[in-house]
């Protein structure tokens, strides 16, 4: 009799762990549960396809302007001016530069989107991105100029952005 109770308790524990595992696994595949805010810009990808470092940045306020390649192409091809920031969540320079770029945007509004090249390496190659971070200014559907590497301050970004917009 004691053996039956022991095995029943073990079975209940195993079933409990299995149920918790399946429940948590299901939540990780739901875009609404990947981040506390519900932010999920990777509409062309299943949550299970995202890289871990990308998931870690979903709730970071500095990475809330991400676009898919299709959406980025539409905005570039619209003819309107736009700055596209190509970044990667595994790039140390990006992790330092992105908050500075967002600080610049908060100081002076300008059209900006982000593209995560870790998730979209094909788009990275198509755009000729060889280093991250890279900030490209597009106008009339064409690349006008680019800045590769991290700026040291938000004002450095603003100076480059304003100079670029005035010259072109």
From TrEMBL:
Domain (Thioredoxin) ranges: 40-166
Gene Ontology terms, MF aspect: isomerase activity; protein-disulfide reductase activity
Region (Disordered): 35-54
TM region positions: 6-24
Annotated signal sequence range: none
Pfam families named among the record's database cross-references: Thioredoxin
Keyword entries, A-Z: Disulfide bond, Isomerase, Membrane, Redox-active center, Transmembrane, Transmembrane helix
Gene3D superfamilies membership: Glutaredoxin
Record CDD domains: TRX_family
Any one GO cellular component localisation term in the record: cytoplasm
InterPro entries: Thioredoxin-like_sf (IPR036249), Thioredoxin_domain (IPR013766)
Similarity annotation: Belongs to the thioredoxin family.
Name used for this protein in its record: Thiol-disulfide isomerase/thioredoxin
Originating species: Nosocomiicoccus ampullae
